[in-house]
Amino acid sequence: MKTTISQVPKYEGQAVTIGAWLSNKRSSGKIAFLQLRDGTGFMQAVVAKNDVAEDIFQLAKNMTQESSMYITGNIVEDKRSPFGYEMQVSDIKLIQEAVDYPITPKEHGTEFLMDHRHLWLRSKRQHSVMKIRNEIIRATYQFFNENGYVKIDPPILTGASAEGTTELFHTQYFDEEAYLSQSGQLYLEAAAMALGKVFSFGPTFRAEKSKTRRHLIEFWMIEPEMAFMDHDESLEVQEQYVSFVVQSVLMNCKLELDTLERDTSKLEKIKAPFPRISYDDAVEMLKEKGFDDVEWGVDFGAPHETAIAESFDKPVFITNYPAEIKAFYMKPDPERSDVVLCADLIAPEGYGEIIGGSQRIDDLELMKQRYEEHDLTGPAYKWYLELRQYGSVPHSGFGLGLERTVAWLSGVEHVRETIPFPRLLNRLYP
């Protein structure tokens, strides 16, 4: 019976064959312990000299790291193992012997590991992070599909920017200028006017020369947009969505979280509703915490977000930012024209902003005014203005950064470990 490591619990007491790689091994006299991986998981295989032919035992003792094989044996329960099962080997067929695999069990520097990212992905730690990433994606589709959202794929090449063109990648689109998308939001607003509730999940690009542990040049975003929904209703969707994803990871990634030594007691507290504070209150809170340089009207950086998050054990919404530091499309607060109906969701434990969202301007004349203030005179924005001209309605949306969310839930320090092949300021390889 050919199977995978993840399916092994179904075959306790039976002989199976698995296609696997050797991630590590140790041997002592008449027994060899092989640490196997097959992409679905990790498992120990025990090769006893008295139970196999001599050539099989010698193969097991001499096999090199990352050699590939078909390995056959009986599945038995092993309560000492995190996985809970091991294989008692009866046969091994070598597929390819790996020679001088560069990533050994010893410690390696970050740059070395990043240069060998195509191989580093095979490690147990990176495997766990990628499985958590996959679960977040799976849970995202489940949440929005079950709540009546339609998946929309906005273009990656655009003729306009959602938030200004200074941090966009420019490219030539035949005889006109184009940009790599920094957000699908504008197009999703058009889709929401057609389909009600929509969401996208795709790559975005920011030509931002940042080297922090929270920034990537290319990253993935989940962006829902909802017609006939105001700002407060959108906040409820956001906290319900994040709560659903966190609980899904806790339920379906127990082994991976354990491998990463993640303190899951902190994640177990992540259930809606989330606390909310205004930008005004956040400024006062920061001043009380010793940030004397923070004045009303400045945007918050990573140290500010971390300091605010320390006061809460759940993600916290910071609402109603000054209009002058937010995007042109955000709707002003009806009671205060100097702030807009928006919120950033700040994750606990120093992981920073994971969601940015707002209610969008739905008034045609106000949007025309914003166009003038932001010099949006080109034809590339004409269609976006027309959304307010033909059947405009109140609508809201938000964007969640996948990699920051993966970092938070898996407990890794840097977002470079949360995407298979990170694109950083000075890294385009591999």
Can you offer a commentary on this structure?
It comes from Virgibacillus salinus. By secondary structure, the chain is an alpha+beta fold. The protein has 13 helices and 19 strands. It has helices at 54-62, 110-115, 117-120, 124-146, 185-195, 231-252, 254-259, 264-267, 279-288, 302-309, 364-373, 382-386, 402-410, and strands spanning 2-3, 15-28, 31-37, 42-48, 68-77, 85-96, 150-151, 157-158, 170-173, 176-180, 197-205, 218-227, 276-278, 316-319, 332-333, 336-340, 342-347, 352-359, 395-401. The strands form 4 sheets. It has an 8-stranded mixed β-sheet with strand order 7-11-12-19-18-17-14-13. It has a 5-stranded mixed beta barrel with strand order 2-3-4-6-5. A 3-stranded antiparallel β-sheet has the order 8-10-9, with no helix packed on it. A hairpin with a 4-residue loop joins strand 3 and strand 4 (42-48). It starts with a strand and ends in a 20-residue tail after the last helix. The relative contact order is 0.11.
Features:
430 residues, alpha+beta, OB fold (Dihydrolipoamide Acetyltransferase, E2P), BirA Bifunctional Protein, domain 2, 2 domains, 8-stranded mixed sheet, 5-stranded mixed beta barrel, 28% strand, Asp/Asn-tRNA-synth_IIb, cytoplasm, ligase, aminoacyl-trna synthetase, ATP binding
